[in-house]
Design a protein that fits this description.
By secondary structure, the protein is mostly beta strands. It has four helices and 13 strands.
Length: 331
């Protein structure tokens, strides 16, 4: 059978191509054959063939991830919202000041009782304060009934001339209604409204007896590590024959403000009180600093200046600096 005239030409062309492929530039990708790593070998092939690497895919959050929980409650809210009913917890600061030096001790009430002996400038001052929730979610609302008790004492522990007596002890039981709130005022969050029946007395007989009863309305605010308690009170009237201190409002006024700020593990607080009178203006300021010391025991520094540090001193201006220990502060 005769050969096709094009066959010799095709055979020569294939031979020439095969010779050029073996002796000239290697086939793309042949240099990648000796790479053992799969990832690097694939990368080598991509470069040899001019293929671009795919763009990284953004991570998609898992649908099973839990949504963020509510912001943690500040210290003030925890104290007034989370205690179990009947559990006894801190109310106002609990402290003892072995050094409580008063530059202006009130000598007048004790001159007759102490037979002329002088009250010493330095004494021990301590306070015990607690509260318990008696009734929770009254009428199925965010409203709780509390019982509070505060005892403030001044002990002439270093005055051996008069047998180191307790100079003054004030007892303050309180029945308090707390109503949870959720509103903003000047950048502060209103958390609790309070309404209480308050009795305070020193348990003494005349002429050292002092006592009064009040209805007290208050509002507690907070923002982050800052908390404030604003209170206003109305004194329940007493008969003139039973009133040991008829002018007490002229010195203690009609309300007070407590503000506290927590910085890391330190707490700074201030108490302000004023009778809001243009003539014979009287008031008081108390500054407190609580700082870590040893476990739950904290160091406590307190400065008081003004009227009403105690009931026996309601009409006397004290100026006192104290240093001691505390178990709880305002926050």
């Amino acid at each position: 059978m005769p050969k096709h005239p094009l066959l010799p030409i095709l055979a020569a062309a294939l031979a020439a191509y095969s010779t050029a492929g073996s002796a000239g530039t290697p086939t793309p990708g042949r240099q990648c054959l000796h790479i053992e790593s799969d990832a690097k070998r694939l990368e080598c092939y991509d470069k040899a063939l001019g293929r671009k690497a795919p763009a990284p895919v953004a991570a998609v959050p898992e649908s099973s991830a839990e949504p963020p929980g509510p912001a943690p409650l500040a210290a003030l809210s925890r104290r007034w919202a989370l205690e179990r009913p009947y559990a006894v917890t801190a109310y106002k600061p609990n402290y003892v000041l072995p050094i409580a030096y008063n530059t202006r001790p009130n000598q007048r009430p004790y001159r007759a009782a102490a037979q002329g002996e002088q009250i010493e400038h330095n004494e021990v001052k301590f306070q015990i304060s607690f509260k318990a929730k008696l009734w929770e979610n009254i009428l199925h609302r965010d409203m709780d009934l509390w019982f509070g008790y505060t005892q403030l004492a001044f002990w002439q522990a270093y005055n051996s001339n008069v047998s180191s007596p307790f100079r003054e002890t004030d007892y303050e039981p309180e029945l308090l209604l707390g109503i949870g709130t959720h509103y903003n005022l000047l950048g502060l969050k209103g958390r609790v409204l309070t309404l209480s029946l308050d009795h305070q007395s020193n348990g003494r007989s005349d002429p050292l007896s002092r006592s009064w009863n009040r209805v007290i309305a208050g509002a507690l605010f907070e923002r982050g590590n800052f908390a404030m308690w604003v209170r206003a009170w109305y004194r329940v009237p007493e008969s003139a024959s039973n009133d040991d201190n008829p002018d007490i409002e002229q010195y203690l006024g009609y309300g007070d403000i407590v503000a506290a700020y927590k910085h890391e593990r330190q707490t700074f607080s201030v108490l302000l009180r004023n009778n809001l009178r243009r003539n014979r203006n009287r008031g008081a300021v108390e500054l407190d600093w609580s700082f870590p010391l040893l476990g739950p025991v904290r160091g406590y520094l307190q400065y008081f200046n003004g009227y009403g540090e105690s009931l026996i001193d309601y009409n006397h201006r004290n100026n006192r600096l104290g240093l001691g220990l505390a178990l709880t502060d305002w926050l």
